[in-house]
């Protein structure tokens, strides 16, 4: 079954790419909205490149195009009806984490809207016996038992939506070579797959109940609205093409998901992460994985990790009002390492299975585990 079409916002008037919503009063892409936000908060004065006019990389011309398109600052928007369509930080020294949190919320909402529409149109999934939802997520949705084919489509769309999310969060993504960008998105998707489901399950309170009874955590969110049970893992792959090609894939995938659970869940149980801390640890793990790509990515990754840690100090001291937060910060770093290890191991194992043609070469699973991007193909 093909996924339903998502909202068509037209093209971004600044860069010509696809718009994903209304930002600063204009239908635009996230990358240009993020650029405009940084420009007005930093109050920089840009100058044109020597080769101007109108080359895409020129920040002066890009800012002028934002203004020409009608983007206006939050000060102007205060006098208009309705909420400000973008989020600026409330703390002058926590700009990156608040930007990431705002972008992640948009990323989550867009994925949820697609997933609900898509899964409501299929009769292949059964409702899960466990209908627990994170209490801080106001949207109502039915939790289903995950199946391989449907969740693969959901993750493919998540990868497509990750491109504007990452581009608006990190300006460097906008100018990355295709191969670097592919590896960066690949790392992000595997981190999200390995850790977001456990984090969201922990927020339901289900995790604390099971751990308190000395039982192993036996289920987690595979996508935003689907779960699977570790004791009934075969249901996920039942009737799927990979299971037909190699029964070993079910045992292997189950073993690696259990390994991921054993690395991540005990730390989540101890910490009770806030959402902004989850974003911080996700970014730390992402840039640690991606720094292995090449020297330039290492430099970028080091600067972002340093900035995240600096902002965490401010967050704990000023916003959380913690007098002694060294232990919590240490736990967060341990969790980042556990997330990175889980994602790397899962990716390596799936690459091994793909080498032996367990997955259809045209499938999203085969595409997302490749070591190199094929030039003639779209990103995802």
List the helices and strands and how they pair.
Layout: E1 21-23, E2 26-28, H1 30-42, H2 59-69, H3 74-77, H4 95-120, E3 144-145, H5 148-169, H6 178-203, H7 206-212, E4 219-221, E5 226-229, H8 234-237, H9 241-245, H10 248-271, H11 275-290, H12 295-319, H13 326-355, H14 364-368
Helix pairs in contact: 1-5, 4-5, 4-11, 5-6, 6-10, 6-11, 6-13, 10-13, 11-12, 11-13
Describe this structure in words.
The structure is a single chain. By secondary structure, the chain is mainly α. Helix content is 57%, strand content 4%. The chain contains 14 helices and five strands. It has helices at residues 30-42, 59-69, 74-77, 95-120, 148-169, 178-203, 206-212, 234-237, 241-245, 248-271, 275-290, 295-319, 326-355, 364-368, and strands at residues 21-23, 26-28, 144-145, 219-221, 226-229. The strands form two sheets. It has a three-stranded mixed beta sheet. It has a two-stranded antiparallel ribbon with strand order 1-2. Strand 4 (219-221) and strand 5 form a beta hairpin. Helix 6 packs across helix 13 (326-355). The protein is globular and about 60 Å long. The two termini are 18 Å apart. The model is unreliable at 1-6, 75-89 and 207-214 (pLDDT under 50).
Could you give a quick summary of the protein structure above?
The protein has 380 residues and is mainly alpha-helical.
Helix % is: 55-70%
Number of helices: 14
Order of helices and strands: EEHHHHEHHHEEHHHHHHH
What average pLDDT do the residues reach? 79
Tell me the major beta sheet. 3 strands, mixed
Number of separate strands:
5
* Coarse structural class: mainly alpha
Give the N-to-C terminal Cα separation: 18 Å
Question: Low-confidence runs (pLDDT<50, min 5 residues)?
Answer: 1-6, 75-89, 207-214
> What is the radius of gyration computed over CA atoms, rounded to a whole number of angstroms?
21 Å
Query: Order of strands across the widest beta sheet?
Result: 3-5-4
Percent of residues in beta strands? under 5%
Categorize the overall geometry. Answer: globular
């Amino acid at each position: 079954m093909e996924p339903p079409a998502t909202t068509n916002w037209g093209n971004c008037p600044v860069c010509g790419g696809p718009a994903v919503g209304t930002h600063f009063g204009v239908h635009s892409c996230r990358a240009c909205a993020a650029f405009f936000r940084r420009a007005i908060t930093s109050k920089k004065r840009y100058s044109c490149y020597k080769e101007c006019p109108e080359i895409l990389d020129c920040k002066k011309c890009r800012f002028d195009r934002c203004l020409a398109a009608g983007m206006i600052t939050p000060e102007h928007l205060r006098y208009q009806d309705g909420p400000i369509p973008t989020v600026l930080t409330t703390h002058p020294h926590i700009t990156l984490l608040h930007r990431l949190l705002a972008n992640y919320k948009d990323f989550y909402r867009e994925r949820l809207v697609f997933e609900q529409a898509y899964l409501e149109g299929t009769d292949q999934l059964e409702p899960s016996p466990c209908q627990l939802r994170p209490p801080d997520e106001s949207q109502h949705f039915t939790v289903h038992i995950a199946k391989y084919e449907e969740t693969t489509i959901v993750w493919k769309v998540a990868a497509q939506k990750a491109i504007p999310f990452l581009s608006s969060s990190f300006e460097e993504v906008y100018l990355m070579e295709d191969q670097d960008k592919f590896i960066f998105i690949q790392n992000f998707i595997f981190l999200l797959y390995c850790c977001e489901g456990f984090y969201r399950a922990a927020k339901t309170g289900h995790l604390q109940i099971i751990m308190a009874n000395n039982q192993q955590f036996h289920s987690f969110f595979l996508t935003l609205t689907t779960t699977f049970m570790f004791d009934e893992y075969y249901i996920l792959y039942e009737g799927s093409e990979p299971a037909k090609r190699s029964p070993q894939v079910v045992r292997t995938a189950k073993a690696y998901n259990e390994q991921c659970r054993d690395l991540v869940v005990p730390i989540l149980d101890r910490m009770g992460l806030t959402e902004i801390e989850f974003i911080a640890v996700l970014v730390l793990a992402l840039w640690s994985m991606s720094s292995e790509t090449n020297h330039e990515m290492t430099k970028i990754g080091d600067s972002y990790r340093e900035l995240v840690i600096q902002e965490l100090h401010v967050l704990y001291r000023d916003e959380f009002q913690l007098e002694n937060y060294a232990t919590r910060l240490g736990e967060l770093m341990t969790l980042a390492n556990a997330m990175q290890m889980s994602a790397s191991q899962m990716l390596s194992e799936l690459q091994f299975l793909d080498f032996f043609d367990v997955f259809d070469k045209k499938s999203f699973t085969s595409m997302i585990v490749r070591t190199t991007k094929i030039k003639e193909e779209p990103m995802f």
